[in-house]
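Milestone M4 deliverable, item 7.
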Amino acid sequence: MEITDKNEKIRINKYMSIAGVLSRRRADEAISNGEILLNGRVAVPGDKVGPGDEVIYQGKVVKNAGVKKVILAYNKPLGLVCTSKDADKNSIFRKLDYPEMLYYVGRLDQNSQGLLLLTNDGELANQIQKARNNHEKEYVVRVDKPLTADFVSGMRNGVTLEIEDDKNKEKLVRTTKKCAVKQIGRNTFSIILTEGINRQIRRMCEHFGYRVVYLKRIRVMNIRLGELAAGEYRELTAEEERTLRKLCGEK
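Output delivered:
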């Protein structure tokens, strides 16, 4: 499968994503940092790539041909971070040792564990992470004191948080989307989110005076963690992948 068809041109960040080299967001950063060349010159935001164009990243030509798409379900252990292999000795990619270059879909912080999707399919990753698509992510959370009815109700109905606008680097105030919350123990609950604000669950709990002591993601859309051991990964089944792509709007 070719990345571009006939005389069609696509934005360079999308080109890098389809090629399985960088996510769109990381490609935008690489372009801003002057790390990508297009036909011998430094690429700029908004550049488009068509048949016959040459794109170079880290000294290597990004070939105009599709690659085998890989999607892994990975059980991220505590203590690891979602950064590139070279950036941190505790990077998940140092521990994973997978032969293909992958990137994560929806990060988990160092003190969180559980299901993380890893892929080289940038377009699929982009569709999963878009908040407007309302894709579900389910977590089990334990806090430092007993739950109350007010806490459960407040979490369900949305919490006002201050967030940073990535583009404008400004502080914004917004209310989280309503979500499903179910108490499953004295100090434990499950929560299903359809957005991805940084440290969202921890900050929502802090709003009500609670501290998260355990946070585990157990599902992303139709993909469940199941009995996968910490630090282990598996490829999705054909049926899981078909359903996942269908939920993301692929035909």
